[in-house]
Amino acid sequence: MSTPNPRTPFLSGPMLSARRALALLAALCAAANVHASQTYTSEASFLAAVPGLSMESFEALDGTSLGPASVVTPLLSLSVSMPGLAVQTGPNTPQSGYDTSASDGSHYVLVYAGAVAPGTLTITFAQPVTAFGFTSSDIGDSAVRAGVLRLTTNTGAYASGVDVLNLPDIELSGATHFIGLAQAQPFTQVQLSLGGFDEAYGIDEIYLATAPVPEPESWALMAAGLLGLAGLRRRNTSRRG
Ligand SMILES: [Ca+2]
Ligand SMILES: [Ca+2]
User: Fold this and answer.
1) Ligand 1 center to residue 219 CA distance, Å?
2) Which ligand is nearest to the CA of 114?
3) Could you tell me which of 200, 43, 44, 38 has the C-alpha nearest to residue 134?
4) How many angstroms is it from 36 CA to the middle of ligand 1?
5) What's this model's pTM, rounded to 2 decimal places?
6) What SS3 class is residue 95?
7) Rounded to an integer, what distance in angstroms lies between the CA atom of residue 133 and that of residue 202?
8) Is 155 left (phi over 0), alpha (psi -120 to 50) or beta?
9) What are the pLDDT digits (tens) for 163-203?
């Protein structure tokens, strides 16, 4: 005579257990993705929605003259495809006449294009991030319309680019804008490009949210879930065989 099946209700059917394991994995993935993919043009909304932000304000860097060299800080580096970058330490040092400005402190990055379209600004992060934002100054004030400002991440929802700012008219000189995005999938690089012309603009107050690393307990839970699924499948296979 066979003994009654000692399995608990938790293990009473393969579909139920598989569902529980999948629900556990989904919960862990949701915990890792604290915010969905979204763009922002309001700094207050971005700050309210995105936890764990760090900010780069370039205050620790000396001023540099315009050139092709990257601007490098512990959190990130900036490089441009066109003529120049500079760390500007005030309205006239080392460049003048663009009405660019710092939105935090006195130092910011000047992106200079001269008499051509400004090309692409590439920002590379020291660690994977899930959110990015900055304040621009004097973007879109040139005699030719700047058009659309586009951000592109190197992975995830915005890997094909997203239009974050549409400038239908020529902007007032010195105007500032906040632009940000958050993305469920971590990324290590973002590129900024303009649909039209601007001889120079400023970048300051770059925010980033470092991608969360799952806690050791989360990894253990996830491994236990996967092992449970594998064991269930083996048992069902041997019972059928
Ligand atoms: Ca600054
Ligand atoms: Ca400008």
Assistant:
1) 39
2) 2
3) 43
4) 28
5) 0.76
6) coil
7) 14
8) beta
9) 999 988 888 999 999 999 999 999 999 999 988 888 899 99
